[in-house]
Design a protein that fits this description.
about 280 residues, Endonuclease, Chain A, single chain, 434 Repressor (Amino-terminal Domain), seven-stranded mixed sheet, 2 domains, alpha/beta
């Protein structure tokens, strides 16, 4: 009988602790000896199956040579709140906190994304991303927008790694026709899509406007799957004031069914590319 699935925060803490141990050149046996426990306990902590006390956490961080106080504080907060099954990260656009989302993006080996009116973040151009941010009713300021655009472009680096994640994107045709930033920006964006879909790990399918009612009418979402089989999938639904993360089997299975249903309605990748070319030619 399997144990409880790791929570979102505990999963993140496990990933960071494992990375810090490896960076320090320590083994799980070394960590266990430091804590005075069996290696199996360290293994369960690093798989997200077991929480860690704040005393043990601080002892390990000291053992791993972690000196950055901000990093220590982040890990302490993750440990304190690690029993919570999911949460809404309250964050206005003026003070965005994308650390968890980016962490999932960087560690996932399979990303599924469904978008309606916007181009998926990993496929956006800088000009398109800037136009989206400038459309926010709350003024962000040029410096903040610059930093957010830079962060979005850096996120796309996951597709250029030696072992990039598999990225499967379903876009509604609306996103191809919406003149975000004007005609010139959209021409650049659609041309970029045609270039990106040549990537061997990227699949892009478009749902035509005329398809009618479908399972994606409730809005966009992103799903992450990880190489570690002990980590459950995570569903991310972004909204105006925060981000909702879901990971229970019932939630992830429901969104998997929705995504598969949308994929069955969407055009093939080749036909989707043709539709993008048509949208581009109309500009």
């Amino acid at each position: 009988m399997s144990g409880p699935r790791p929570t979102v925060r505990r999963r993140r803490l496990a990933e960071l602790l494992t990375a810090l141990r490896e960076e320090a050149g320590k083994s799980q046996e070394d960590a266990a000896e430091r804590l005075g426990c069996h290696r199996s306990k360290v293994n369960r902590i690093e798989n997200g199956r077991l929480g860690i006390s704040l005393g043990e956490l601080r002892d390990l961080l000291n053992y791993y040579g972690v000196k950055d106080q901000a990093q220590v504080d982040e890990l302490v907060q993750l440990a304190r709140r690690g029993r919570e099954p999911g949460w809404v990260r309250r964050a206005s656009l003026a003070r965005p906190t994308y650390a968890d989302f980016i962490g999932y993006e960087e560690t996932a080996n399979y990303i599924r994304s469904y978008e309606v009116s916007l181009i998926a973040g990993l496929l956006q151009t800088a000009d398109y991303a800037r136009a989206v941010l400038e459309a926010a009713p709350t003024a962000l300021g040029s410096d903040k927008i610059d930093s957010l655009v830079t962060a979005r472009m850096e996120r796309q680096g996951v597709l250029n790694r030696d072992e990039p994640p598999r990225l499967c994107v379903i876009q509604h045709e609306t996103s191809l026709r919406q003149l975000v930033g004007g005609r010139e920006v959209m021409r650049g964006q659609l041309s970029h899509l045609l270039e990106t879909v040549r990537h061997p790990c990227v699949s892009l399918q478009v749902i035509p406007d005329g398809v009618g009612a479908h399972a994606g009418l409730f809005g966009p979402f992103v799903m992450f799957r990880f190489p570690n089989p002990t980590f459950s999938d995570v569903v991310c639904v972004e909204h105006r004031t925060g981000t909702l993360y879901m990971e229970t089997p019932e939630e992830t299975e429901e969104y998997t069914l929705i995504f598969d249903s949308l994929r069955s309605l969407a055009l093939s990748p080749a036909d989707s590319a043709d539709l993008i070319r048509q949208a581009l030619s109309s500009l």
